[in-house]
Amino acid sequence: MTRQVYMDHMATTPLLPEVLEAMLPYFTQHFGNPASLHSWGDAAREAVEASRAQVAAFIGARPEEIVFTGSGTEANNMAIKGLAQAQEKKGRHIVVSAIEHFSVLQAARTMEKRGFEVTLVPVDADGLVSPAAVAASLRPDTVLVSVMLANPEVGTIEPVREIATVVKEHGAIMHTDAVAAAGQIPINVEELGVDALSLAACQFYGPKGVGALYLRRGVRLIPLMDGGVQEGGRRPGTDNVPGIVGMGRAAALAPARLPQYAEHLQSLRERLFTGITASVEHILITGHRQQRLPGHASFCVRFIEGEAMLMLLDARGVACSSGSACTSRALKTSHVLTAMNVPAETAQGSLVFSLGLDNTAEDVDHVVEVLPPVVQRLRQMSPLWDKFLKGKKEGS
Amino acid sequence: MPAYSEKVMEYFMNPRNVGEIPDADGIGEVGNPVCGDMMTFYVKVDGDRLADVKFKTFGCGAAIAVSSMVSEMAKGKTLEEAMQITNKDVAQELGGLPPNKYHCSNLGADALHKAIEDYLQKAGKESPQV
Predict the structure, then answer these.
(1) What separation in angstroms does the CA of B18 have from each of A315, A389, B21, B53, B72?
(2) In this model, does residue B130 exceed pLDDT 60?
(3) Which pTM value belongs to this model?
């Protein structure tokens, strides 16, 4: 059988066995509703509160500052819409970076329809948001700024602490989407100086369908939904108790693993970068070369298209991701690569490898072995490659 | 992967007629790399028939499968018959395409027709009425 190599941990991570084990009793034995006033409810509520404390400890927050959600996307929507709306008497201007996840960008667009103005802060060629650019975009009526902690497509880690300093001096609310970063780099809300921060459990070996929004004590939020008292009224709806228990367990396991984990990921990443750049020519590394997630390696392979590469790699047991237009449902070139000024033609060859706990040096070597023939095969089919070779011949 | 039919996968994984014809009688190019897909078709004409059809394609799995299918459908056909192949026919032969791929990736017949028109123009002939 072909070696199976999963390198798409930015899409989701596998669930750790000990996380699953922690979750299981809450499907069956402790099935109670945490809102119920009897011992079944008590057992579920205690588990949810224990998880809340674990997630809070994971990011240096207080338990009462954690609101469980159904996903990272929900946490981002809640932050953008709920925080902006709570501030609307103060001002109606929102600032977000151009490379945010769609759950931030489109939530901001929705607020435009509700009378807010949105400024997109540009990024440089490495995908970095500069604190000065954020400062330049602030206006007297700016009430909310959102810049992600790390970008899942190009791996760049943003200077959120410096940005938060600028934003807090201005008196606006600072949110960061830490979904991609969580579990790979240490996160402390006090050190970052943010008011709100989004997490998704399935990015750090927890279950899918559960996320959290950190909300600094005293920060007001208008809930997205009405009709319940759960999560302090900020997120009505019966809690996903097994999911929340899993998120808590995953959050509790992450910090102890982190130093060795990050080192492991980084050494694999460098092995991948070295191997691929040595064996595939006309390739562009995307994102910041050093200031990036330890387990993240992204490229644009010129003259060919990403989805075709994904399909051929999948046939050779390798799972990764791409930001090419053809891989997006809307068939649009990645807004992240576009914001970084990568030419549309080059962006089509986007390839993203995101590493995780389950990857080994042998996995990396397998990718380095199977990728060059895939690239070569597609280039031999590509009229762009032809034109490039002919141009080179004529030029020389 | 997108929801591709078995036939699309087969024509993508084992594409037919990839390459160029150095002394092609006609060349047709459609699409552009910015929108994601670009196809170049080469035809060799013998009498009123397509003796050979080859292609080069930059694009996703669907674009490559489409090119591959068009080349196979056209080879050996008369110019008139080949001009009647539509993008819809190609998609049908492939067992359908995901809805969002119908327009952008399904340009193979257009590229083929362009190559035939290029031949006719070079040969000083009129395009067959279809």
Answers:
(1) 20, 17, 10, 9, 11
(2) no
(3) 0.94
